[in-house]
């Protein structure tokens, strides 16, 4: 809402000389936040000038300029006429104009100085309206001051300061109006708040207008409200004032003060009737609609739309109406307007209009909000109606419009007055006067509470020792409960009165295990040289295809946004890795060849249901609550990582080593290890991984919690990534749940360690994991650990075979093992491998 | 091995002559002193103290002496060999020390070459670290951390929080709706639904913070992210007032941004709080003392987040009796807090995943 300070002054005593900045500071204190301050953009000498001479000079390019001498009084310091070159022609010698002198700065930071041009020294500029940031007054060029201001030239003195004459010393404060304060979408409302903030005297313009507005009478234009489907039990229109002004000249000039007021408040000056309706809306907060009476029949009927009905609105768009839309119709048939949202083109005031019907109505906020939303049509009127317009000002607003149409449009007002009023007065709030003290933490006396609420406009009925009856004023439909009144008390007494007291919670449990584990995992990955990222979690079916997910891959089933930012990514991710590859690509494009990234985040891992809902302020039944919860898809937290290039770089120290599939698997195992979980690995073939270089990662209980390995070469080429990128992803929630038990400390054996090497020849298809399992089983409890130190395939072991060489480490917690004991255990381990997968000792 | 000499031979016995012994010692000592390396010393030892050295040979002759001469000759030769042995030992120690010194000198490297890193540098995401820092401050005061899903039921995101479906505030949330749009699911627009979940699951009294991601249909630019992080706080207990809200925010602000950085409450509107307030932060650049400050526009205050007393309808929807309990809630942007704390100025950098963004900070912000 733009609030011109001069307009504000009409309703509240703003101190002389108050700047926009000061007014904005006063308004922010009571909750109207500053958005911007407009105007006040001209500094330096802008004065009245009288053109003494004007000599046209034709230039070589055919253009004609005027070499003028202008009397600017003493404003130039010499009293001599000022020489100015001017390119415009809509003036003559003898005219009174506006002159900007060297040293001034015009809007946009345009500094004026004397400069040589067209063979003359031009010391200043004769001004046009747009150069000063003013609306055009019809002159389409140089401002002719007496005409613009509607005064005699003799009233103006050369050298006189023109800033106040043109209102250029005026400032406009733009404030953000929160959705609960619809009444502040008017100068009247802001003025009231300014009064609350500063104590300045507020004069409600509605009081005087109401006193002048005539009573409704039988000769008023017939209006009927016929709402057969009220929303939430509220009839769509509970007040409709109609007034008629005849013989209006729609082309009558708009007085300068009116166009200035409307323009400063941020709307365009269009025509006298339009400007008047906008002026009343901006001033009082009551949206008006002006109908061309000649286009109306016998009666206005306010009713709900019929499905499929159509109307062409003022913006020349034909709109199909919804059954819930509230309409203003001609005799119940032809739609004239979508009530409170936008008028129809057919009944609009045009340049042939003579008789005007002014509508000042009050519509149900819910009805207007829904219509505006359905038609994606947020108008100045709907913005106000959906936030709540004061239903008590309709007659006053219509009166103001009538007055102005008569005064400036040459109209005569009809005696007939329509005022259909079924407004239900606000019910009193049973208010505990201690509640402000209890909620705010400042001790307010009963008298303070009463005085504050009264200042806001409430009617307070004090009941000693019991709850008070507080009735909110008509312009505050947002005040319906005790806490609403508490805010008024706190706000007007000042939020700066609230002391600062630290809340002392009951002792907490600290972080949960899962919250701690997340940090541990992330810190470990960072320490390993990976960078944490946060990627946008939006994906697409196309990405899933690029990642080679099969048609029935469960990761394809996820939730879809109905209004995605981009149609190219309408789905929520089911894999964290899937959204990380874009960041990997970006890093590579920025010149980083060796990159490791990781991310922790939620994924969708289950179907979404349909969630029921419940009205605000109502505690749902256990059944409804369960249905709400169950509709939300399961969203576990995953951790994913991706690496490309050298994990260890080459450099002056020698060769580097690129990260390979085993690093990706080792990362998975490392994540388990930092949480004290010995993860297991098995061969797998899952997208987006290389079918032969993909490990599935399992909890010790055998459940699969993720995969790691090298990405499929086709995935990499499709996504434009370099070869041999490796990656992995784990369900961190599953891992955390397993890890969430205190570790058990085993005694540390101190007897010497013994080792023995074996080279086992097995079929090529046998995995190390299977061999190691068997070695552990057969090696007995003294087999402390083992390490694979060589893999050999070749003619020495024969076609289809490979040799896996292990060093087995033995230790007993009770004694030093003898060579004999070690050999027995080793042989038992080897036998177990043979039993499991068929193995011979290499060279045996 | 030399056996006892049964044949007396006067020529050979001259090796035991005191002068000869002394001259052999002199020769040996000068050879030892002349040895300039451990190798030369080894040669000198073989020549002058080895089995074939004159003194060793002389020692062998002692056995052939008449018993009366044995003792004196033995003593003489023994002392001579002792002197040579001692000289060798000393020279050995000197030369070893020199060698050790030389090796250490030779092994010296240019340690400044180690600044070229062999492994890529990792790091935590600053937004995560900022969130962690804020959470830790709250946990340190006894608050607990609560979490919830990002795809969330509309009831939790809006209705439970007193956002009426027809209220303009609900339209102003720029919500991502899930398909079908009437299925009652959205991307949470704030972490506030965790308020409702926590009250329902844990009951009251309750002191929780809810960190996490929130979603708005904002196009990505320097100051807007469609996915951002929020820290929501909720305290519900008997006797909670706005003063407790102010105290808690002041404490958090001071801890995060430094001594003297307090908050200011000014009236605002949020559907889930009443009274509602906007919390401004004392400008951490000028502390309200520079009218030309670009960070705060000269006002001395920076907008930080929304807060207020929990609306009675929220308490009711969550099964809490507003006549018995009151509460306060606040919500603040983590990205914004990070910008305040570190001077980061372009929010796009926070979701691009450029490794350099993390590398500036390591594991702390
Ligand atoms: Zn500042």
Automatic annotation (TrEMBL), chain A:
- Record field: catalytic activity: tRNA(Phe) + L-phenylalanine + ATP = L-phenylalanyl-tRNA(Phe) + AMP + diphosphate + H(+)
Assign the protein's first listed, main location to one coarse class. cytoplasm
> Per its UniProt record, what Pfam families does this chain match?
B3_4, B5, FDX-ACB, tRNA_bind, tRNA_synthFbeta
Q: Which UniProt keywords apply?
A: Aminoacyl-tRNA synthetase, ATP-binding, Cytoplasm, Ligase, Magnesium, Metal-binding, Nucleotide-binding, Protein biosynthesis, RNA-binding, tRNA-binding
Which amino acids does the record list as binding Mg(2+)?
Answer: 478, 484, 487-488
Q: Name one GO biological process term.
A: phenylalanyl-tRNA aminoacylation
| Family named by the database record | Belongs to the phenylalanyl-tRNA synthetase beta subunit family. Type 1 subfamily.
This protein is called Phenylalanine--tRNA ligase beta subunit
Automatic annotation (TrEMBL), chain B:
Q: Which residues form a coiled coil?
A: none
Where is this chain's protein located in or outside the cell? Cytoplasm
Please name the Pfam families in this protein's record.
Phe_tRNA-synt_N, tRNA-synt_2d
Instruction: List the catalytic activities from the record.
Output: tRNA(Phe) + L-phenylalanine + ATP = L-phenylalanyl-tRNA(Phe) + AMP + diphosphate + H(+)
Q: How is the cofactor bound?
A: Binds 2 magnesium ions per tetramer.
Ranges for domain Aminoacyl-transfer RNA synthetases class-II family profile come to: 130-339
**One GO CC term of this entry?**
cytoplasm
Subunit annotation: Tetramer of two alpha and two beta subunits.
Know the name of this protein? Phenylalanine--tRNA ligase alpha subunit
């Amino acid at each position: 809402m733009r609030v011109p300070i001069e307009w504000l002054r009409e309703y509240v005593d703003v101190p002389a000389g108050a700047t926009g900045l000061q007014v904005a500071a006063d308004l922010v204190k009571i909750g109207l936040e500053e958005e911007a301050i407009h105007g006040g953009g001209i500094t330096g000498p802008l004065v009245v000038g009288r053109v003494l001479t004007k000599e046209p000079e034709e230039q070589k390019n055919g253009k004609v300029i005027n070499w003028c001498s202008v009397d600017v009084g003493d404003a130039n310091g010499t009293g001599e006429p000022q020489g100015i070159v001017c390119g415009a022609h809509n003036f003559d010698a003898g005219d009174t104009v506006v002159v900007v002198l060297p040293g001034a700065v015009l809007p946009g930071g345009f500094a004026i100085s004397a400069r040589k041009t067209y063979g003359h020294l031009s010391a200043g500029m004769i001004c046009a309206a747009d150069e000063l940031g003013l609306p055009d007054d019809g002159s389409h060029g140089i401002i002719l001051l007496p005409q613009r201001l509607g005064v005699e030239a003799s009233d103006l003195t050369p050298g006189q300061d023109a800033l106040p004459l043109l209102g250029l010393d005026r400032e406009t404060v733009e404030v953000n109006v929160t959705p609960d304060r619809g009444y502040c979408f008017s100068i009247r409302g802001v003025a009231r708040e300014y009064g609350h903030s500063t104590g300045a005297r507020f004069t409600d313009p509605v009081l005087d207008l109401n006193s002048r507005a005539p009573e409704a009478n039988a000769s008023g234009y017939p209006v009927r409200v016929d709402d057969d489907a009220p929303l939430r039990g509220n009839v769509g229109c509970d007040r409709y004032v109609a007034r008629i002004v005849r013989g209006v000249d729609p082309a009558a000039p708009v007085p300068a003060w009116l166009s200035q007021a409307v323009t400063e408040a941020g709307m365009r000056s269009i025509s006298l009737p339009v400007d008047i309706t906008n002026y009343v809306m901006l001033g009082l907060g009551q949206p008006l609609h002006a109908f061309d009476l000649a286009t109306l029949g016998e009666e206005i009927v306010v009713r709900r739309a019929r499905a499929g009905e159509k109307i062409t609105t003022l913006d020349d768009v034909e709109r199909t109406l919804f059954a819930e839309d509230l309409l203003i119709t001609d005799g119940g048939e032809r739609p004239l307007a979508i009530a409170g949202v936008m008028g129809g083109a057919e009944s609009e005031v045009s340049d042939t209009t003579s008789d005007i019907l002014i509508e000042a109505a009050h519509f149900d906020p819910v009805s207007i909000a829904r219509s505006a939303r359905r038609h994606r049509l947020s108008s100045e009127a709907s913005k106000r109606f959906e936030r709540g317009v004061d239903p008590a000002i309709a007659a006053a607003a219509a009166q103001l419009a009538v007055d102005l149409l008569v005064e400036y449009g040459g109209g005569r007002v009809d005696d007939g007055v329509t005022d259909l009023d079924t407004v239900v007065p606000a019910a009193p709030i049973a208010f505990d006067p201690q509640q402000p003290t209890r909620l705010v933490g400042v001790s307010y006396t009963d008298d303070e509470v009463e005085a504050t609420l009264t200042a806001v406009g409430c009617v307070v009925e004090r009941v000693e020792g019991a709850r008070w009856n507080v009735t909110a004023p008509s312009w505050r439909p947002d005040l319906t409960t005790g806490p609403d009144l508490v805010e008024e008390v706190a706000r007007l007494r000042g939020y700066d009165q609230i002391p600062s007291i630290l809340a002392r919670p009951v002792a907490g449990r600290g972080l949960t295990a899962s919250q701690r584990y997340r940090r541990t995992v992330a810190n470990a990955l960072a320490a390993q040289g990976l960078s944490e990222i946060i990627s946008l979690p939006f994906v697409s079916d196309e990405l899933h295809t690029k990642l080679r997910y099969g048609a029935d891959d469960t990761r394809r089933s996820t939730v879809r946004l109905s209004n995605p930012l981009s149609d190219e990514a309408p789905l929520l991710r089911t894999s964290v890795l899937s959204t990380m590859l874009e960041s990997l690509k970006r890093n590579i494009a920025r010149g980083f060849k060796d990159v490791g990234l990781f991310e922790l985040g939620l994924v969708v891992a289950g179907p979404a249901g349909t969630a029921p809902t419940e009205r605000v302020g109502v505690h749902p039944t256990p059944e409804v609550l369960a249905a709400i919860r169950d509709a939300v898809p399961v969203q576990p937290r995953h951790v994913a990582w991706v690496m490309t290039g050298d994990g260890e770089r080459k450099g002056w120290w020698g060769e580097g080593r690129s990260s390979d599939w085993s690093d990706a698997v080792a990362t998975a195992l490392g994540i388990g290890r930092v949480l004290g979980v010995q993860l297991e690995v098995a061969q797998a073939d899952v997208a987006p991984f290389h079918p032969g270089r993909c490990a599935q990662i399992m909890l010790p209980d055998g459940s699969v919690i993720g995969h790691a390995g090298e990405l499929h070469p086709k995935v990499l080429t499709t996504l434009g990534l370099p070869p041999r990128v490796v990656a992995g992803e784990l369900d961190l929630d599953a891992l955390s749940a397993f890890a969430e038990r205190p570790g058990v400390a085993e005694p540390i054996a101190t007897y010497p360690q013994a080792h023995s090497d074996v080279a086992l020849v097995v079929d090529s298809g046998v995995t190390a994991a299977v061999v190691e399992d068997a070695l552990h089983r057969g090696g007995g409890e003294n087999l402390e650990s083992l390490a694979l130190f060589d893999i050999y395939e070749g003619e020495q072991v024969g076609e289809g075979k490979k040799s896996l060489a292990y060093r087995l480490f033995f230790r007993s917690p009770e004694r030093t093992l003898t060579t004999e004991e070690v050999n027995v255990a080793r042989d038992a381990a080897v036998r177990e491998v043979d039993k499991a997968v068929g193995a011979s000792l290499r060279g045996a | 091995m030399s056996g006892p000499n049964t044949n007396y031979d006067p020529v050979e016995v001259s090796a035991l002559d005191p002068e000869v012994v002394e001259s052999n010692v002199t020769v040996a000592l000068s050879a030892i002193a002349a040895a300039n390396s451990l190798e030369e010393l080894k040669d000198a030892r073989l020549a002058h103290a080895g089995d074939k050295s004159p003194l060793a040979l002389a020692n062998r002759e002692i056995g052939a002496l008449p018993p009366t001469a044995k003792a004196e000759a033995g003593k003489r030769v023994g002392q001579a060999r002792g002197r040579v042995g001692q000289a060798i030992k000393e020279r050995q120690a000197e030369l070893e020390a020199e060698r050790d010194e030389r090796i250490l000198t030779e092994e010296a490297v240019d340690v400044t070459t180690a600044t070229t890193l062999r492994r890529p540098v990792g790091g935590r995401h600053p937004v995560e670290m900022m969130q962690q820092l804020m959470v830790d401050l709250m946990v340190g005061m006894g608050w607990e951390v609560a979490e919830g899903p990002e795809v969330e039921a509309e009831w939790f995101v809006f209705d439970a929080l007193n956002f009426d479906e027809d209220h303009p505030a609900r339209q102003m949330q720029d919500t991502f709706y899930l398909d079908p749009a009437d299925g009652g699911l959205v991307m949470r627009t704030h972490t506030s639904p965790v308020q409702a979940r926590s009250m329902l699951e844990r009951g009251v009294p309750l002191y929780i913070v809810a960190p996490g991601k929130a979603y708005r249909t904002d196009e990505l630019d320097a100051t807007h992210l469609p996915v951002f992080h929020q820290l929501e706080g909720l305290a519900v207990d008997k006797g909670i007032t706005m003063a407790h809200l102010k105290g808690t925010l002041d404490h958090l602000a001071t801890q995060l941004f430094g001594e003297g950085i307090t908050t200011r409450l000014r009236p605002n509107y949020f559907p889930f709080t009443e009274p509602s307030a906007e919390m401004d932060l004392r400008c951490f650049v000028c502390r309200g003392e520079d009218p030309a400050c670009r960070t705060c526009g000269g006002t001395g205050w920076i907008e930080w987040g929304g807060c207020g007393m929990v609306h009675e309808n929220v308490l009711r929807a969550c099964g809490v009796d507003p006549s018995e309990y009151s509460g306060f809630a606040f919500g603040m942007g983590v990205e914004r807090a990070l910008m305040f704390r570190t001077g980061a100025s372009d929010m796009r950098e926070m979701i691009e995943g450029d490794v350099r963004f993390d590398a500036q900070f390591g594991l702390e912000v």
